[in-house]
Structures are given as C-alpha cells and as structure tokens.
C-alpha cells in the first residue's frame, strides 16, 4: 500500500497520465464534432454516462441535475464554475417509450444549453448516437468522471464501471452493482458514493414515498422540474415533458427526487477535487491500480478452485 501511494503521488507519472488522458479527450472531441457538430473543450471535465437507457439506471437524474446546473450558471454567471461536458450514450429497447423520452429530453436540453452564448463554454451537453463497442473504445479512455448512479438494489452487476475506472475515470455512484466491489478495491476516499442504500429504498417504498415532500424542500430540484415542465427545453411543444415531470412528482419509483440533493452534493465534491489536479490524478492512478482485482486471471483462478475443483497452473 505504501509503495502504491508513492507511485500514484509521483508527479512525473501524474504528468504522463494527464498527457495520455488529454490525447484521448482530443480524439473524443474530434469524434463529437464530426458526429454531433458540437465543439467541446478537451480541458473541460468529461462527465460520462454510457450505458443502456433505462429508468433504473437513472439518466433522468443526471439530466435533471444538469438542468439545475444550467439554471444556476445562468443565475450566477460570475461564479468560478468548473467547465463540464455532460456526455451520454446508450440505446433504449424498441418499445420502451419512457427511455426514448429520456433520450429526447437529453437532446432537447443539449440543443438549448449548447446554443446559449451567455454561458460560453462552461457547460456542454452531448448525446452521442449509435452507441457501440467502437464508440466505447473512444469514450472510455477519455472519461474523467464515470456516472454509475442506478437506484440502489436494482443493478445486477455492471462491467462498464470497471472499464471506466481501469482507464482512470473516478466513479460517482450509489452503493449498487459493481460499485460496491470498486469501492473496496480503490478505497472509500477515491470514489464518490452518495444516496440511498438498497435498504433505504425498500423502507421508503414501504412507508409510502412522497416525492412532493422532497421537492418542496429543494429549490434547485423544483426549479429544474418547473423549467422542464414549462417548455424551456421544448419551446415548440411546451407540454412535451409534462408526463416526465408528473412521474417524478407523483410516484418516482426509482427514487430520483430523494437522491437529487446527495447527487448534487457529490458533484460539488467532484468539482473541488478537479480544481486540485495533482490530487485528482493521484486518485485516478489509484483507481487504475486498484482494478487489478477485476482481472480475468483472478476470476478464472477462483472459478478453478471454487467451482470446477481443478488446480490452476
């Protein structure tokens, strides 16, 4: 452990890692410009959520917080905001209307935010279409922050988060799926865990979850929901997302509203760390090193011993 910490704290290693990461971000920026006609700055924080679009994976939480951030930047343009690219990619099942509506909302938010000259390049929102393995090979090495924010207790496992961490992205996520093992592997201080646990979710549902109680005590959340419901991001069809907002304010099965505040607080901690590059890259390198636990060699040895009952050579 002492040797590992010294390795991650080596400034020469940090510089080499930062250069490699920047080159990967330049490649991704070029791809985004070619495919989406959006210009993004490789020096910005690349905040990435790439996975199947599903309500339990909570892309809606990420885009809702992005709307709240956009409104805050508009209200306080002189704050020292961390430049951020909020990037999404993934596919929805053919008949999954709610998931497709989330994709549409992400694109609608991006159209308004990316065209707003008043916020300059502080925030960009990108949905990269036609997500596949080849696209992942460009996005994953370029990611600074890995969004793993599923409703606790609903993610079976997850390997995308392992790949992102292995490439030096810090994870922000719930105690769900492989996040639990990643936290153990990289250390509690090198991951951003937030929100309800699976037990908390079960208790809240049993008690009769009332999202309105949460919303009434969160001005940022309320403002974001009001902006979406009033057509700020769909001016040609103001009521386009009324159903989306009604779902969150009336039922909210996937616990977006109670996790909104903790998620926003965790992102603020991300921003604080980003403003300290040596510490950011030290933690990123510790993430890379900690991923050795997830190697196929270790997995196969365990299968050989515990399941197949054979001796591994």
Report on the architecture of this protein.
The chain is an alpha/beta fold and 313 residues long. 56% of the residues lie in helices and 9% in strands. It has 14 helices and six strands. It has helices at residues 2-8, 11-36, 59-75, 97-114, 133-142, 160-166, 179-186, 198-207, 211-215, 219-229, 242-250, 256-274, 277-290, 296-308, and strands at residues 45-50, 84-89, 123-128, 145-148, 170-173, 192-193. A six-stranded parallel β-sheet has the order 3-2-1-4-5-6, sandwiched between helices. The chain is globular. The mean pLDDT is 95.
SS content category: alpha/beta
Low-confidence stretches: none
Order of helices and strands: HHEHEHEHEHEHEHHHHHHH
Through-space gap between termini: 27 Å
Shape descriptor reads globular
User: Biggest sheet: strands, sense, closure?
Assistant: 6 strands, parallel
How many strands in all? Answer: 6
**Rg on CA atoms, Å:** 20 Å
Strand order of the largest sheet: 3-2-1-4-5-6
Percent of residues in beta strands: 5-15%
Number of helices: 14
Brief account:
By secondary structure, this protein is of the alpha/beta class.
Key structural traits:
single chain; 313 residues; alpha/beta; 14 helices; 6 strands; 9% strand
Present the secondary structure layout.
Blueprint: H1 2-8, H2 11-36, E1 45-50, H3 59-75, E2 84-89, H4 97-114, E3 123-128, H5 133-142, E4 145-148, H6 160-166, E5 170-173, H7 179-186, E6 192-193, H8 198-207, H9 211-215, H10 219-229, H11 242-250, H12 256-274, H13 277-290, H14 296-308
Parallel strand pairs: 1-2, 1-4, 2-3, 4-5, 5-6
Helix pairs in contact: 1-13, 2-5, 2-13, 3-4, 3-10, 3-12
């Amino acid at each position: 452990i002492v040797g590992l910490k010294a390795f991650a704290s080596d400034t020469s290693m940090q510089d080499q890692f930062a250069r490699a990461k920047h080159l990967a971000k330049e490649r991704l920026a070029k791809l985004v410009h070619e495919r989406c006609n959006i210009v993004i700055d490789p020096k910005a924080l690349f905040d990435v959520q790439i996975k199947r679009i599903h309500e339990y994976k909570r892309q809606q939480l990420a885009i809702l917080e992005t709307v709240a951030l956009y409104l805050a930047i508009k209200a306080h343009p002189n704050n020292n905001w961390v430049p951020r690219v909020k990037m999404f990619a993934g596919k929805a099942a053919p008949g999954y209307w709610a998931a497709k509506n989330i994709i549409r909302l992400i694109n609608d938010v991006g159209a308004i935010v990316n065209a707003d000259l008043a916020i300059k390049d502080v925030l960009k929102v990108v949905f990269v279409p036609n997500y596949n393995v080849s696209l992942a090979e460009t996005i994953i090495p370029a990611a600074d922050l890995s969004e793993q924010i599923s409703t606790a207790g609903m993610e079976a496992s997850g390997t995308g988060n392992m790949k992102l961490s292995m490439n030096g992205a810090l994870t922000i996520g719930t105690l769900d799926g492989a996040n639990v093992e990643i936290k153990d592997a990289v250390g509690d201080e090198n991951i951003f865990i937030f929100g309800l646990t699976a037990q908390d979710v079960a208790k809240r549902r049993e008690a009769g979850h009332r999202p309105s109680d949460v919303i009434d005590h969160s001005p940022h959340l309320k403002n974001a929901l009001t902006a979406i419901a009033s057509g700020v991001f769909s001016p040609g069809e103001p009521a386009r997302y009324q159903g989306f907002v009604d779902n969150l304010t009336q039922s909210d099965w996937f616990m977006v509203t109670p996790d909104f505040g903790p998620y926003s607080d965790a992102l603020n901690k991300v921003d604080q760390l980003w403003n300290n590059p040596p510490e950011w890259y030290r933690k990123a390198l510790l993430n890379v090193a900690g991923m050795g636990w997830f190697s196929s060699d270790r997995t196969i040895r365990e299968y050989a011993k515990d399941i197949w009952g054979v001796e591994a050579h």
